[in-house]
């Protein structure tokens, strides 16, 4: 299999308006397209992350809860590369987002930290 890139990351949220606000107004991702899929009673929000990456945010009437913690099998977290970690942390905290203490990656020597989206999905910011 020859892969050119990751096409998108899909996230199912429990409260569409709350998550839409978080990803657009708090994290600053731009909206590519917003679609209401009437037959599924569901929104699909395509968000631009950086220059070429995309998150697809989905809403469904009654999604189940996240079944695992970040240390269980499955997707552990979603990480975003940033240039200035201190600036991003300060910006998130100024918007009421709780951010964990900054850590040092023992393998790369780079700094990183975690915060959570409205559904407690672990998100990482990694200074690159």
UniProtKB/TrEMBL annotation:
UniProt KW Transport keyword:
no
UniProt superkingdom: Bacteria
* Keywords assigned by UniProt, alphabetized: Dioxygenase, Metal-binding, Oxidoreductase
Q: Where is the VOC domain?
A: 5-128
Q: Which InterPro entries match?
A: Fosfomycin_Res_Enzymes (IPR051332), Glyas_Bleomycin-R_OHBP_Dase (IPR029068), Glyas_Fos-R_dOase_dom (IPR004360), VOC_core (IPR037523), YwkD-like_dom (IPR037478)
Query: Pfam family example for this protein?
Result: Glyoxalase
**Protein name in the entry:** Glyoxalase/bleomycin resistance protein/dioxygenase
Query: What NCBIfam families has UniProt attached to this entry?
Result: PRK11478.1
One GO MF term: metal ion binding
The residues forming a coiled coil are none
């Amino acid at each position: 299999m020859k892969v050119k890139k990751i096409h998108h990351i899909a996230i199912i949220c429990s409260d569409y308006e709350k998550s839409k606000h978080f990803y657009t107004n708090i994290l600053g991702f731009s909206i590519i397209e917003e679609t209401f899929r009437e037959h599924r009673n569901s929104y699909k929000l395509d968000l631009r992350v950086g220059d070429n990456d995309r998150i697809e945010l989905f809403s469904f009437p009654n999604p189940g809860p996240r079944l695992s913690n970040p240390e269980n099998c499955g997707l552990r977290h979603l990480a975003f590369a940033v240039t200035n970690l201190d600036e991003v942390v300060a910006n998130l905290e100024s918007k009421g987002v709780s951010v964990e203490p900054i850590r040092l990656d023992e393998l790369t020597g780079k700094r990183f930290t975690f915060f959570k989206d409205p559904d407690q999905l672990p998100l990482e910011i990694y200074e690159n």
